[in-house]
Amino acid sequence: MDIELVRTFLEVNRLRHFGRAAERLFVTPAAVSARVRLLEEHLGAVLFSRARNNIHLTPAGQRFLPHAENMVRSWQRAVTSVGGGERTDMVALGSLHSIWNVLLDGWLAQVYGQDLGVALQVELLSSQAVVSRMREQSLDLALMYEPPQARDLRVDAVSRVSLALFADRPGLTADEALSGYVHVDWGVQFAMSLSRALPGLPEPVLRVDTPEIARDFLCRRGGAAFLPETVSGGGSADGPLHPVTGAPRIDRTVYLVESAEAAESAVRDRVRAALAAWLEARA
Q: Which of 53, 89, 125, 237 is the most exposed place for a label (fewest CB within 10 A)?
């Protein structure tokens, strides 16, 4: 099976949008659709539900997802091995997509500008995949909201994301804004805090796993979502969203996770220090 078919499947799942996946893969939307159809033919199953503005995995797609991630990971390892062996200066860094875009935009350029003598492999993953990869020791460092409390993992709080309710129109009350509520997956603790703060919260009109998708939807279709100011502000051509007065703010702690059993590494220490300095400067 062509590994690019699997990469395309993962990118569409991550972005929930064929057009944006095409941009990331440097192909046309038609090519993305063709790749997904060919993969579905190979597997004999439909992988995506293609409802308008709500592309999501079918049950078959959910079952295929961990296999797809393993296939791409194994291929990357094979390429590295055949190409001359593992680099001793390589650090594999994993992150949730929402953490990376909110806190680490621009960090890579700064790190490479400092010439730390390190090569980075960055992967944006789900929480479950991060934990699995840490335990496989195929990630050196990872950023996540809700790390497991386990003896084999070292966990340090390194930053915080403050979330507020933003709507597409100014002057709305919380009740008015929440009539078009879009739920962003900020983790289980966020959902619990939200249910305590807003016990009458209506069912969301849409559930997404990245704030950028929520912002795009709000700008095009209206509604409200809990977002950080860095995502909700006016940097987009669609214009800024508007804070909803009287709505609660919910903070999410960001943790840096690494294996407690990994050997000491000066290279990993340099990356950890660069991350800490960047996050402290943005606090």
A: 237
